[in-house]
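Q: What changes when nicotinamide-adenine-dinucleotide is included in the input?
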Amino acid sequence: MKNVSRRSFVKKVGMGIGSTAILPSILPFHSVLAQQGNSYSGKKLNIALCGLGRYARILANGLEASQYCKLAGIVTGTPEKAETWKKKYAIPDENIYDYDNFDDIARNKDIDLVYVVLPNGMHKEFTIRSAKAGKHVIVEKPMAISVKECQEMIKACKNAGVQLALGYRLHYEPTHIELKRLGQEKVFGQVRLIEASLGFNMTNIDPNDWHLDKSLSGGGPLMNLGIYCIQSNRYVLGEEPISVTAQYIPKTKPELFVEVEEGITWQLIFPSGAVCTSTTSSNCGVDRFYAAAENGFFELSPAISYGPFIGRSSEKEFNFPVINQQAAQLDGIGKLILENKNLPIHIAGEEGLKDMQVIEGIYKLKQVRKLY
Ligand code: NAD
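A: The predicted holo structure follows.
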């Protein structure tokens, strides 16, 4: 795995930021491995990617860099893609499926886990079909498009005796592991306020893109991007929110964002009294995280994209290695499954369910006021 150090990146952008040591005690094994370049030569977890779109291509790179997982199969509805991927990744014919014959994967001993990278509205179906086929599952974010679907997926995986993991890559990223430590260990005292926002300008999106189709996306940027803000609030505070307020942002392109919101802004209150305020948008770019604690602060921007992340606390600049986030995530999950260990709750299906409960809470408010 290739690591670009924070220092070399920062030098490139000419900011002259100093170094910060990572405390080994808070780094999970796979992150240490990623930094030290150690190699594992045992059996790998054989993964079939289900859905071969944009993010599957990034995951394929992660699989190439992974020490514990390997790309062993594909599931696609497009024969041309099957041909291209087969050649590029030397995938045997018997490990290539389409959406109709997918259930035959139950008989394929060469596939251990299905990684569902389909539009959100298809996550439930393919997670449950994978579980019924006896395969472990990683499902991309958001886990599904409703709380009910998440519950059904967790139940199906439990009944089938397979593990269900979420594609939450930031749990394996050193800067975010540090954010979690600073917040949960109250290094600067209790965090009182978090501002976390994520948006991309998607106003040039193809009007036929599934992100605009509510049955496939479940919603707009809240499902796609805002979920990361909710995640960071929850893992930095180590608490679950107790109340929510929210407001839709007026649509600038109502003819495009017909079925889904164009933007939404919300606030969560946590049991400690911490307030988290966030905005997610499909009409402008924003990627930032700021936490104000009793005796200091910590912040990142960019904060949530694939990095490199730039940030600091009130004491020092961050200087963490830039890792392949997908490889680190795959290694973290793959190693535990290979060792027949249960996945920790913050990586398992229950975590996706908790985020979906917050998302449903935000959507339920429907505070639409005519502003113009
Ligand atoms: P994409 O549109 O690029 O790919 C979707 C794939 O699903 C395509 O290969 C498409 O052919 C296939 N598909 C099958 N049935 C379809 C249908 N009815 N309509 C549309 N496509 C259909 O999307 P993507 O960006 O790869 O996103 C896939 C999933 O990955 C989403 O859940 C998304 O939220 C998630 N994602 C996660 C990250 C991350 O950083 N963890 C980043 C991007 C996307």
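Observations recorded in class: The first strand starts at residue 45 and ends at 50.
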